[in-house]
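Data availability (excerpt). The following record was deposited with the supplementary files.
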Amino acid sequence: MIRAYKFLMRPTVGQQQALAEMLRDHCSLYNGALQERRDAWRHVSRTTVRYGGQSAQLKEIRAFDPECQGRWSFSSQQATLRRLDKAFAAFFRRVESGEKPGYPRFRGVNRFDTVDFPRNGDGCRWDSTPHDPVTRVRFQGVGHVKVHRHRAVVGTVRTVSVKREGKRWYVVLTAEQARPDPLPATGSVVGIDMGIANLLADSDGEFVANPRHGRKAAAKLEAAQQALSRCKRRGNRRRKAVETVAGLHRKVRRQRLDHAHKTALGLVRAHDLIAHEDLKIRNMVKAPAPKPDPEQAGAFLPNGAAAKAGLNRSISDAGWGVFLTILHAKAESAGREVIAVDPRNTSRTCPACGHTTAENRPTQDTFHCTGCAHRAHSDTVGAVNVLRAGLARRNARKG
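Predicted structure:
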């Protein structure tokens, strides 16, 4: 199996400059390749330029510009061209499926933050000084950079990436490793119901609170955004204001990830099977369609867009997608089973008698069956029904 590791790097001032130059030159290569594709399609009888042809030009580009393009790893430049090729492949896929196309765009220097090295040892080397007590990673054109390795890397390192986040630099590794031994069986199964008031409720009647990191940081973010809006463009004050806003967003993201990791780890350690709702989050956070007023041309009827926008912010702040992704990854490593089930009517079906109706849920938190008068928390009822559906799906799969 493949596992990713992310470590903070501690480059010197000179190495920071070299890393920034590496990102700048790879950004220039990306934009130049994109311009070539645009010009070939528009001006040369709709000719399509592909990765193979652009990769074959790299040798000439490096010879023509040895001070910039020639000093970096050849394989990392190929990876940058592959990134552009993937962007075009995704563009054509969206066109064929009828989605919003989103044509690939040019990247600004401050928005190109990652360089990939497809193979460890080709332009880069992880743990380049194994006899040194300090872990270092070597990059062609940069040198040996100190790394704060806060955990051991298990397996064989395959790929290495450099990533810039604000003023910090990170190295991201992917390592191929043998499948770890599964955790001891607990004999416990659980269903979970995702929510906003509580991040999740399980079928045992337990709740995990929603920390609402985004809402807690909203006041600071609003003040920082207002300060940014008052700054003149291309000024030092604006650059610092941008860094302040980005730093606040990064903090919220790290807090959300930390909470998701801890919650998922607790579930994986305690249960052999975890069932959850198969939520279509992208559809859930879509803005409501406008309602034209049939009696007045050019006017629209109220469609609840303001209330839906607040709900969308709460859903995004809860981070359901991030949590479920982490849960699946941890369950795979621990040998646990995770099953996604259809979420329809899970909070409207009585677990005691099976009666299903919208009237069973008179309020957001209350479940009161109109058939048998069963009472419970609506999220707990949803989790119980999710667990039953997950067990039924597992039994059907085995049968």
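Summary of structural features: The chain has eleven helices and 16 strands.
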